[in-house]
Amino acid sequence: YYLLVFSNECRDLPESFRFDYRSSKSFMETEEMFEERATRLDIPRSWSEYFPGDGFLQNDPKVGLYREFYEVLHSSPGEVLISQVNMKENVYTLPVDFQVLQKNLPTESFATALLLDPRNALLCFSAAIHELMFNCDKEYHYPGRIKLRLYNYPESMLALKHLKAAYIGRLISVRGTVARMSVVKPLVVEMDFSCGKCGSAIKRQFSDGVYAPPSTCVMIGCKSKTFLPNRGHAKSINFQKIRIQELLDANGHEEGRMPRTVECELTDDLVDSCVPGDVVTICGIVKVINTDMDIGGGKHNL
Q: Dihedral of CA 278/283/288/294: which sign?
């Protein structure tokens, strides 16, 4: 904070010597700094893990969603849910029955957020569980993200024939037969880079495993665009692709048409959880991919 002291003697000074402190650049910058600080809240230690690079601002819808989940989970039913978090191969997962969740921990915001912005809704829920489980009134512990495995969500069920571009980015559930599977591969999701000029380390996270090195150095005065990847500290997860084929209905089958298929991506504990021929229900977020698939097929898929 700054203490500004003004003397009444300045009223006797010539006009050219008078100084309007509110019009000064430094005062305006300080005022803006205070206003920005007033909109910030105490940042949970789990926030940077789930939303790297995003500030914890009061007017951010994600922050409001996170705080609501935190309050709801800070209860006896919430403790029962958190106790079901399990670890498999150093990955924390939590299977969530949507119907049971709505009955024991009713929150309208979660259902609405799953419909409008499912990715951030699931991340906010995971971040709240993470904070209560590892960081709340405890010494900071870094176990990695908690992965929610949502199931029994009938409102999201969709037939493959209705899966169109309008569903990109939305959470859906599809049921079908596993037709093909790829081998399990490592998918790099995080890597450190060293600046070729100043040597500073920059951590980058790769969304969906897409390689994206830094564009410019973050150090003041260094604008280098040359970076060396530190592959020894790369973080990877298990990754697998499967192809789901729609179930044939004798009553509604379209004669002469090949069964529709959709390709799905499995990570971490979900890999090798099924085999070709199994009838499965998959709940996930629809996205567009444009790459050669190693399980056969074209380049443009959902």
A: negative
Chain centroid, CA 97 distance in Å: 20
Nearest to 100 by CA among 150, 142, 53: 150
Separation CA 272–CA 249 (nearest Å)? 27
Beta partners for 176?
Answer: 246, 280
Averages of pLDDT over runs of 10 residues in the chain (302 residues) are 41 47 45 44 78 82 88 87 83 88 83 89 90 68 78 88 87 90 88 84 80 82 83 85 82 70 89 90 82 46 42
Distance CA 245, CA 259 (A): 6
The CA distance from 84 to 86, in Å, is 6
Where on the phi/psi map is residue 233: left (φ > 0), alpha (ψ -120 to 50), or beta?
A: alpha
| Residue 284 dihedral angles phi and psi, to the nearest 5° | -165, 180
For residue 191, what are the β-bridge partners? Answer: 204
User: CA-CA distance, 117 to 291, in Å (whole number)?
Assistant: 25
pTM of this structure: 0.72
- Picking from 35, 74, 30, 29, the residue whose alpha carbon sits closest to that of residue 58 is 35
Helices vs. strands in the chain: H and E counts, helices first: 7, 11
- Give the pLDDT confidence score for residue 255 in this predicted structure: 66
H/E stretch holding 127 reads helix 118-130
What is the model's pLDDT at position 18? 47
Specify the pLDDT at position 243: 92
